[in-house]
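Thread title: Can someone regenerate the structure for this chain?

I was given the following input by a collaborator and told the matching structure tokens would be attached. They weren't. Posting the sequence so someone can regenerate them.
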Amino acid sequence: MIAIIVIAFLALIGAALTIFLKQRTPSDATGNHVLQPPHFEGLFDRPDAASLIEKPTAGDRKEGLLELAKAGDLNALSAAHATHDAELYAEVLDGLCEWASERQENLAALVSHISKSNELRANKQLARRLIETWKTAPNRRSTTEMIHIAALSDDALTYEQAVETALEVWRSGRLPGFSPEELVELFVSQYWVIAPEARHGGAGFALKRRLLGIRRELATAAPVR
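Best answer:
Regenerated them for you:
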């Protein structure tokens, strides 16, 4: 008698458990039970995780920009500037300077690209190369551009070299497009384009004194005809 009661009790429990599981397990349209995959709150359980993984590393980005620079892609310089990595920017600019040394048209394109920007800077290598090429055909526009690039090199000695070269050519009569006052205005205005840290120190103070001397000299100079 006791055995019958135990068996009946166990059967009742089994039936109740079956009903409970059916209620807990979702079914599809055919009535078949559908197993739901477990949900993980792990490292990659975010919608932007894949994009983060697929992004290039700093090394890949650097290599890519340097390749673009050597191929003459001027946009590489703006991309390097956007990274706020001064070392990367310098390397990309060096690559573009190497490309610019191949042809005069390349140099003109790089100089124009930097001159028209309000953010990009030059370097000593580019400024000194431009100073040398400028001597062959100086005019008003190219003089302004040459002095501006020299200022963007953020090097006081390079800027002084550009000023002295322009002054020498003007004295020789090969730069008649400038009056003495205009030449002084160009030199002084572009002086303030140089980075503040480059205007300080020994070379910066020497440059400032030289500009004051040029101002005094040209104040009494007659226009070159």
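The radius of gyration is 36 Å.
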